[in-house]
Amino acid sequence: MPETPPVQDPSAAMPETREELLKLLDRETAVARATDGRLAVLILDLRRVDRLHALLRGPSPSMTMALVLERLRKALRPEDRVAPISDEQACVVLPRLAHQSQAVLAAVKLLRALDRPIAHEGGSAVLRPCIGIATLPEHGFDPAELLMAADISRQIAATREEGYHVFQGDEAVEAEVYRGLDLDLERAIRANELELHYLPQIDLASARPVGAEALLRWNHVKAGAVPPQTMVGIAERTGLIGSLTFWVLNAALRQASEWKASGRTLRLAINLSTSTLTDRELPAVVDQSLKTWGIAAGDLTLEIAESAMISDAERSVAILTRLKAVGVRLAIDDFGSGFSSLSHMRRFPLDELKIDRPFIAGMLSDAGDRALVHSAIDLGHHFGLRVAAEGVERPELRSALAALGCDLAQGDAVSPALPAAAFREWWTVHASGA
Ligand code: C2E
Ligand code: CA
Ligand code: CA
Question: Are 42 and 54 in contact (CB under 8 A)?
Answer without folding.
Answer: no
